[in-house]
Amino acid sequence: MGNIKDVTKLTDNPYLNLYHLKGTNRVGKPLNYYIASRVKSMERMKLKTKKNTPDGIIIYSLYGEKRDKVVLVKQYRYSIDGYIYEFPAGLVEEGEDYKEAGIRELKEETGLDLDLIQAEPMYEKPGFMSVGMTDESCATIYGYANGTPSKKGQEDSEEIEIVLADRKEVKRILKEERVAIMCAYMLMHFVKDEDPFAFLDL
């Protein structure tokens, strides 16, 4: 097993920072490794706390009288200089409950309200995003969205199109568009399962 001996913070940004890890690998050779983290101090990094506190929240919600549409966002991302389909998502603010964060983020990004489903904790617990390069983890919440879509709550830095997609459109998106991986897996349930939330054991 590798051994981390020293951690150095290399940047000082508000939402994401780069850290340098020094140590040894599993056979004792020197190791230099770099990771990004959402936390603002080394003491709060998961490699220090050993706790998986969610940095963000992902919202999987259904829409419409028949609950036959899924709420997506088509968002411009600088990392790929292009648009990608995702679930509405966002960061959990310090001291904020992740479910409250999800309800807030859905409202801000889409203008929609969320009737939250109380799912088993195993379906909500934080999962790691891209663990080879970051310690970021996100919890997932589920529910039924209602209201009228609106961009009024979006920030100036966000370029987001609200998408209410039925199964036919989701199939097209999966075939033809860029899709975030954590969203793509859930959309496969949406396409194939009569009840997309059946796996939640409601």
UniProtKB/TrEMBL annotation:
<protein>
    <submittedName>
        <fullName>Nudix hydrolase family protein</fullName>
    </submittedName>
</protein>
<dbReference type="Pfam" id="PF00293">
    <property type="entry name" value="NUDIX"/>
</dbReference>
<keyword id="KW-0378">Hydrolase</keyword>
<dbReference type="InterPro" id="IPR015797">
    <property type="entry name" value="NUDIX_hydrolase-like_dom_sf"/>
</dbReference>
<dbReference type="InterPro" id="IPR000086">
    <property type="entry name" value="NUDIX_hydrolase_dom"/>
</dbReference>
<dbReference type="GO" id="GO:0006753">
    <property type="term" value="P:nucleoside phosphate metabolic process"/>
</dbReference>
<dbReference type="InterPro" id="IPR020476">
    <property type="entry name" value="Nudix_hydrolase"/>
</dbReference>
<dbReference type="GO" id="GO:0019693">
    <property type="term" value="P:ribose phosphate metabolic process"/>
</dbReference>
<feature type="domain" description="Nudix hydrolase">
    <location>
        <begin position="50"/>
        <end position="187"/>
    </location>
</feature>
<dbReference type="GO" id="GO:0016787">
    <property type="term" value="F:hydrolase activity"/>
</dbReference>
